[in-house]
Write a structure and sequence with these properties.
6-stranded parallel beta sheet, binds zinc ion, single chain, alpha/beta, two-stranded antiparallel ribbon, 23% strand, 197 residues, binds pyrazine-2-carboxylic acid, 8 strands, globular
């Protein structure tokens, strides 16, 4: 069975948001049209507490978009974004949210980031999404949303590792593209067996 996974289509990743992705809002009409075609629909929501360790503001002297070595590996430090309960954390107003079967929040632990919808950035702590999708009978996943080179790519790579058949619809994704991160992510996804369409 097919599932559509809509990654982080939230105000802060759209133009005017705290971590705006160029053209982020352009994916919305495309995703709205795709939703009715899938029997299983999951939305993810980046959902950080104040003082989250992925925020540059939590590390005095550190600039946004610099990289800090954490216990679990290198972590990009971001501008404050997707604060729990904030307008920036809400889904884009034009995104049809009623069709969502499950809304999965991630990145809610202060000390660790979670790009992937399946596991936190230590690649060990599960979010529970694998169990949800398996018990619903999902075998094939289509991923769309923001951002191509971070949360979409990390989710796609985890999904392949977990044995799902994975397609990323690039026309319904937009990238942050920090220092070649988009090319790197596309290459990693291709090498892992993700279908890019
Ligand atoms: C994301 C950076 C920080 C994403 C989330 O949704 O791709 N990127 N938090
Ligand atoms: Zn985040």
């Amino acid at each position: 069975m097919d599932a559509l996974i809509v990654i982080d289509v939230q105000n802060d990743f759209c133009p005017g948001g705290a971590l705006a992705v160029a053209g982020g809002d352009e994916v919305v009409p495309y995703i709205n049209r795709m939703l009715p075609q899938f029997p299983i629909r999951v939305f993810t929501q980046d959902w950080h507490p104040a003082g989250h360790s992925s925020f540059a503001s939590s590390h005095p002297g550190r600039a946004p978009f610099s990289v800090l070595e954490m216990s679990y590996g290198p972590q990009v430090l971001w501008p404050d974004h997707c604060l729990q309960g904030s307008t920036g954390a809400e889904f884009h107003a034009a995104l049809d949210r009623d069709p969502a079967d499950l809304i999965l929040r991630k990145g809610f632990r202060r000390e660790i980031d979670s790009y992937s919808a399946f596991s936190e950035n230590d690649h060990q702590t599960p979010t529970g999404l694998e169990g949800y999708l398996r018990t619903r009978g999902a075998t094939r996943l289509t991923l769309v949303g923001l951002a191509t080179d971070y949360c979409v790519a990390w989710s796609a790579l985890d999904a392949v590792r977990l044995g799902f058949e994975v397609e990323v619809k690039l026309s319904a994704c937009r990238a942050i593209d920090l220092d070649g991160s988009l090319d790197g992510a596309l290459e990693d996804m291709r090498a892992a067996g993700v279908t890019l369409s």
